UniProtKB/TrEMBL annotation:
GO terms for molecular function: ATP binding; inositol-1,3,4-trisphosphate 5-kinase activity; inositol-1,3,4-trisphosphate 6-kinase activity; inositol-3,4,5,6-tetrakisphosphate 1-kinase activity; inositol-3,4,6-trisphosphate 1-kinase activity; isomerase activity; magnesium ion binding. It catalyses: 1D-myo-inositol 3,4,6-trisphosphate + ATP = 1D-myo-inositol 1,3,4,6-tetrakisphosphate + ADP + H(+); 1D-myo-inositol 1,3,4-trisphosphate + ATP = 1D-myo-inositol 1,3,4,5-tetrakisphosphate + ADP + H(+); 1D-myo-inositol 1,3,4-trisphosphate + ATP = 1D-myo-inositol 1,3,4,6-tetrakisphosphate + ADP + H(+); 1D-myo-inositol 1,3,4-trisphosphate + 1D-myo-inositol 1,3,4,5,6-pentakisphosphate = 1D-myo-inositol 3,4,5,6-tetrakisphosphate + 1D-myo-inositol 1,3,4,6-tetrakisphosphate. The gene is LOC108277840. It comes from Ictalurus punctatus (Channel catfish). Kinase that can phosphorylate various inositol polyphosphate such as Ins(3,4,5,6)P4 or Ins(1,3,4)P3. Keywords: ATP-binding, Isomerase, Kinase, Magnesium, Metal-binding, Nucleotide-binding, Transferase. Coiled coil: none annotated. Binds 2 magnesium ions per subunit. ATP binds at residues 101, 152, 183-194, 209. Mg(2+) 2 binds at residues 290, 292. Belongs to the ITPK1 family. This is Inositol-tetrakisphosphate 1-kinase. GO terms for cellular component: cytoplasm.
């Protein structure tokens, strides 16, 4: 049987974070060769590849204003289009849509309609493209968004994408930095559930999150925070400290999680992604607040075995004459 070759096109930081060398060792035991793709060299000289696993988000975002990154992306896309049998995990158009929060929130909203009758929702949100204060205020009222509002950048990748703010009143809307998304904040007992998807499987890890705030507009200065710092496993912030008397929020219902992941996989056409979900403390509704491209999978000890079994599944499918 010919050697099965899987190319990994990841940043140095990402390769280190997932410990690619250890994963390559595991693959070698199953007759799969892992190749670290160097985008600065021709891909033909490094191929052929049965599968390419990549996270090209940096390159895609940088290509908009940097000709060198655009060239690397063009080279990658040329290779992929001239090697149609090479499977991409995940397809570039699918990844591109998740780099834009406007696009990913539209997907989440559609999902809410598909899963009607199940206790899954996404909070009301608004796409802001203008600095006209009266237009923003009018749109917030029309969409019936409730304060506090959480404000997120439109670009959902890079260090700036973690910079968020909590806006407590109409006056605070001055602090929104368009283009951005405004979303009604949902009290969730300071617990965020990170759902890590690998093909057919998913794993849920609980993380710290923002504490509860009174609902409705009130006079308070906008709070600026970095979501990455607030929700790290070891985070300890005044923004996540809950009142001791607060009842515990129930863990998400597993059947609901399965239904959500299944629908998202179909809607996104992706196999490696993360979903941030919270449980509304009042209604216990499962609430989707973000989708992430190829996340870090921290806290998922089964990541290697799940990724390997998904790669083997894809290899088998691609070599099946019926496909």
């Amino acid at each position: 049987m010919a050697s099965r070759r899987v190319g990994f096109c990841l940043s140095v930081k990402k390769r280190r974070r997932i410990n690619l060398s250890a994963f390559a060792h595991l693959c070698a035991g199953r007759g799969i060769e892992v190749v670290e793709i160097d985008l600065s060299r021709t891909m033909d000289s490094q191929g052929p590849f049965d599968i390419i696993v990549h996270k090209l988000s940096d390159v895609i975002v940088e290509a908009e204003h940097d000709s060198q990154s655009q060239q690397l992306l063009d080279n990658f896309q040329t290779y992929v289009s001239t090697h149609p049998r090479t499977v991409l995990l995940d397809p570039l158009p699918a990844m591109r849509q998740l780099l834009d929060r406007f696009a990913s929130y539209r997907i989440i909203s559609k999902l809410q309609n598909t899963l009607q009758g199940k206790s899954i929702c996404c909070p009301p949100y608004l796409e802001i493209n203008t600095t006209d204060m009266s237009a923003i205020q009018e749109a917030v009222d029309r969409k019936q968004l409730t304060y506090p509002l959480i404000c997120k950048t439109r670009v959902a990748h890079g260090s700036r994408s973690h910079e968020m703010s909590l806006i407590f009143s109409r006056a605070g809307l001055r602090d929104a930095r368009p283009p951005c998304v405004l979303q009604s904040f949902v009290n969730h007992g300071a617990v965020l559930h990170k759902v890590f998807v690998v093909g057919e499987q998913h794993f849920t890890v609980a993380r710290p999150s923002l504490k509860n705030f009174p609902t409705g507009p009130y006079d308070r200065k906008t709070i600026f925070f970095n979501s990455h710092e607030v929700s790290k496993p070891e985070s300890c912030s005044h923004l996540t400290a809950l009142d001791e008397t607060m009842p515990r929020v129930p863990a998400p219902n597993e059947d609901l999680m399965v239904a959500m992941v299944k629908e998202l996989r179909a809607a996104l056409g992706m196999a490696l992604f993360g979903v941030d979900v919270i449980t509304n403390i009042d209604t216990h509704t499962l609430t989707i607040i973000d989708i992430n491209i190829f996340p870090g999978y921290e806290g998922v000890p089964q990541f290697f075995s799940s990724l390997l079994s998904h790669i083997e599944y894809v290899l088998d499918m691609s070599h099946d004459p019926k496909h």
